Amino acid sequence: MKNTLIFLLSFIVLPFMVGAQLSIADVEALQVEENERAMSVGKNNSLSIAVPNAEAKSLQKSWTKLMKDYKGGKTKRNRKTKEIFSDDLEITGVGGANTVDVYATVSGNTLTAWFDLGGAYVNSIDHPDKYSSAESILLNFAKENIAGMVEAEVEAEEDKLKKQEKNYEKLVKQKSKLERDIESYKKKIEEAEADIEANIVDQEKTTEAIEAQKEAVEEVKARLSEIKKQ
What we know:
Number of helices: 5
Radius of gyration: 43 Å
Order of helices and strands: HHEEHEEHEEH
Largest sheet: 6 strands, antiparallel
Strand content: 15-25%
Structural class: alpha+beta
Shape: rod-shaped
Low-confidence stretches: 1-19
Helix content: 55-70%
Distance between the termini: 122 Å
Number of strands: 6
Mean pLDDT: 90
């Protein structure tokens, strides 16, 4: 996955694609903002990150999956507070030997997370190392979402390429059929030309036969005329 991620993040999206295009510049521009923000259990220190072009539902689903990958408690979304709550997660870099409760909300393309250490929320002043780990979690989360969107773009372009290749194969087959038709038509023309030559010969013979038959008719008529005169 890591190699795939590096490849996708370094991949410049094809210039003919329609709409906004994500690139390595979007990854390099990612920043985590630290602020105190209101949430379901008060106003606490949080970390936020905006993911370019991302949709809220996609971020919610992706974050939920990420939280479920950590050992520990359960992760679920509270419809009333619109928070994704993860209880008692084992995130060593943030909680050390202790578990961590994580709250998260998504607004537009921005994800905000609160890391509850058990009475204190991770912040850069009191917990610089833990904050750095939490910041890395958000940055990697954003990078993987960008990579996922670029991967979707790659798949879309590959689908277009496959359609164009199929269309090309169809044209090649069509050309082959037309060439076969031409050869068939040429053979038919040659046969028709030979038939015309034979027809001309037959016409000449038939013309000669007609003239001979006319003479025969005239001869019989002459004899009939002589008989009637008697």
